[in-house]
Amino acid sequence: MVIKKNVRKKIKKKIKTKIKKKIMTQGRKFKIGKPILEVKNISLSFGGVKAITNISFNVLEHEIRALIGPNGAGKSSLLNCINGIYKPQEGQILFKGEVLDKITPNFIAQKGISRTFQNLALFKRMSVLDNILVGRKLHSKANFLEVAFQLPRAIREENQNKEKCEEIIKFLEIENIKNTPVGKLPYGLQKKVELGRALATEANILLLDEPMAGMNVEEKRDMCRFILKVNDELGTTIVLIEHDMGVVMDISDRVVVLDYGKIIGDDVPDNVRSNKKVIDAYLGVAHD
Ligand SMILES: Nc1ncnc2c1ncn2[C@@H]1O[C@H](COP(=O)(O)OP(=O)(O)O)[C@@H](O)[C@H]1O
Ligand SMILES: [Mg+2]
Predict the structure, then answer these.
(1) Of the residues 8, 36, 77, 272, which has the fewest C-beta atoms closer than 10 A?
(2) Is the residue at 14 inside a domain?
């Protein structure tokens, strides 16, 4: 979606004060730290199609790292490698200095990496609260029988999980819709519920695949505010795929640019914006 220039300026202005404060290390509650995630020489092909070729980059603790590039550049595939949906044929991924060798989605989630998807993956008939509760599954220790017979541990856990989800709902300022079936909500709010579910896992890293795609300006502004809030107040490291360059430039600390499965830029937003290769490859390409 293309935002008109003057509207984009307004969004920038509104979030700029907060961002300026954030980039200055003094104003930041969680100081940017050592690499929490390191992608080393990853290559992935599907049959003859090379989706990713020899990609290396890192993500520092507490930073907001953007991943941009034209459609088909390999962005979603890269997130799928990080969270164990795809297995790269070559390369390594390190989390807190440790090689992730048995990468499965469940193992990755237990390590503290959570993910939202380019296309919504919610239970439409279930309420907001129940969808967010799904994110707590990872933390449940009660077994099937304990749950079925509502034994003490299951009840205790259920209450704790509910409490945690209520906290998240408050944090995201969506108390008024907590009992509404997700399918009845506008798209922007559904994406926010998906963010809520990812937060419920209490992950160290959130991988957000186009959390603002298809949103109107108001919804985008709202999502930006909450991504910043998650990063600022919870200290969560964020890897964000986003098409809107204005948004990317405003909220990210550093940007990786992909084109045809290769990295063509990796820098702070201002330098990426003026990188000729990036301008030619990315800005010149039309997006849906
Ligand atoms: N499951 C898959 N099977 C075959 N090809 C795939 C699969 N997933 C992605 N690809 C291909 O890999 C390339 C990168 O896709 P993708 O990672 O979705 O790009 P992006 O998210 O940057 O738009 C594309 O050529 C796409 O067609
Ligand atoms: Mg994608």
Answers:
(1) 8
(2) no
Tell me the pLDDT tens digit for each residue of 93-125: 999 998 887 777 777 888 889 888 777 778 899
What total number of domains does the chain contain?
2
Atom 3 of ligand 1: nearest residue by CA position: 46
Do both 103 and 130 map to the same domain? no
* CA 245 / ligand 2 centre spacing (Å): 15
E strand or H helix at 66, and its extent? strand 64-68
Interatomic CA distance for residues 23 and 161, integer angstroms:
34
Give the per-residue pLDDT at 6.
62
- Give yes or no for a contact between 93 and 103, defined as CB atoms under 8 angstroms apart: yes
Low-confidence stretches of the chain (pLDDT beneath 70):
1-27, 138-139, 142, 149, 282-288
d(CA 121, CA 266): 30
> Cβ < 6 Å from ligand 1: which residues?
46, 49, 51, 69, 71-77
> Does residue 16 form part of some domain?
no
- Segment 71-96, tens digit of pLDDT: 899 999 999 999 888 999 999 999 99
| Residues spanned by the domain of 154 | 123-202
Query: Nearest ligand, CA of residue 256?
Result: 1
Q: Which residues pair with 159 in a beta bridge?
A: none
